[in-house]
Every structure is written in structure tokens, then in C-alpha cells.
Design a protein that fits this description.
177 residues; mainly alpha
Length: 177
């Protein structure tokens, strides 16, 4: 336990003393502890020091990856939540009546979901033919989420996505006459 492993220096070379010091420092810093099973000779300790350090690094890496996967949300979801919070703050600050707030919040998610303007900055870095392909995929996904077209086949969804245009429509307005 602890320093009792390092206590006897007589008859040992300088290398062994430094190795015992390195062993003690590594085990102390890594908080692995001084268990019942410890390496007794020079070669075992020389092997154990890198193993202990690599183990601490591995556990740290694993913990970091798990934490980052839990924390990292979809960038679009972050954008939606941030904008909803700003809209709510605006409504509260200017004491917008509840009925208007309800109406605004009912169309706001659809506006964010269907709006391609947030993606245009990213898409501008792509060549035009790739921009068209990505925009088409986004439109197709949006069309497939409309309840009216939920059971449509791929050919129908593709055709609808090709002719879809972005138009802003408020609640209680007819889009098909």
C-alpha cells in the first residue's frame, strides 16, 4: 500500500528507485489506487505504467464520446428551439394578445420546416447541380410529411417535389380552390 512499496532503497540501483517513483506517481495521479495485486518487479511495473495511463485515456475518451453524443442535438432542432424562444420573448415583451400568439406559434414550425433560406448559405458552397439535388431531397421529405400524401408512392412524391414551390400561407387560408 502506498509508500510501503517504495520504502526499501538499499541494494537497488538508481534506475529501480526512479522506476518505483514513477510507479508511485502514476498510480497516485491516475487514482487507480494501491490494490492488493501490484507488480513486484521492474518489468511488471514498466509494463503496468503505460497500461494504466492508456486505460485512463481510454475511459476519458469513452466518457467524452458518450457525453458529446448526448449533448449534441440536431442543428436544425437547435435552430427551431432558439427561434421559438426569441419569438416567445418578443410576444411577451410587447404583450401580444393570446389569440395572435396562438396563431403565430401554430404556423411558425411549418415556416421553419419548409423554409429553405436557412440552408441556402450552406448550399451556396456546393455546385449548382448539387444544390438542385439537395433542395429536391428536402422538398421531397417535406411533401412526404404532409398527411394528405403520407401513403403516396415514390413516383407521386417525386412528381410533387418537382413542382413544389415555396409559398407563405396563413392559417384558415385556402391553398386549393
Amino acid at each position: 500500500s502506498g509508500l510501503s512499496d517504495v520504502k526499501n532503497y538499499e541494494g537497488e540501483g538508481k534506475f529501480d528507485v526512479y522506476l518505483q517513483g514513477l510507479w508511485w506517481a502514476t498510480i497516485t495521479i491516475s487514482t487507480v489506487g494501491y490494490g492488493d495485486v501490484i507488480p513486484k518487479n521492474r518489468w511488471s511495473r514498466m509494463f503496468a505504467v503505460p497500461v494504466v495511463l492508456l486505460s485512463v485515456l481510454f475511459v476519458s475518451f469513452l466518457t467524452g464520446r458518450i457525453a458529446s453524443s448526448v449533448i449534441r442535438l440536431d442543428a436544425f432542432e437547435n435552430l427551431v428551439e432558439e427561434r421559438k424562444a426569441k419569438l416567445y420573448s418578443l410576444m411577451a415583451r410587447y404583450q401580444v394578445p393570446w389569440e395572435i400568439q396562438k396563431e403565430a406559434f401554430s404556423i411558425y414550425p411549418a415556416l421553419l420546416e419548409s423554409s429553405l433560406k436557412d440552408y441556402f448559405e450552406l448550399l451556396l458552397d456546393l455546385p449548382p447541380f448539387m444544390q438542385e439535388k439537395v433542395i429536391f431531397c428536402i422538398k421531397r421529405k417535406i411533401v412526404s410529411q404532409v398527411p394528405l400524401f403520407s401513403s403516396a408512392n415514390d413516383k407521386t412524391l417525386t412528381a410533387l417535389a418537382m413542382v413544389t414551390q415555396q409559398v407563405l400561407v396563413g392559417p384558415n387560408e385556402y391553398i386549393i380552390e
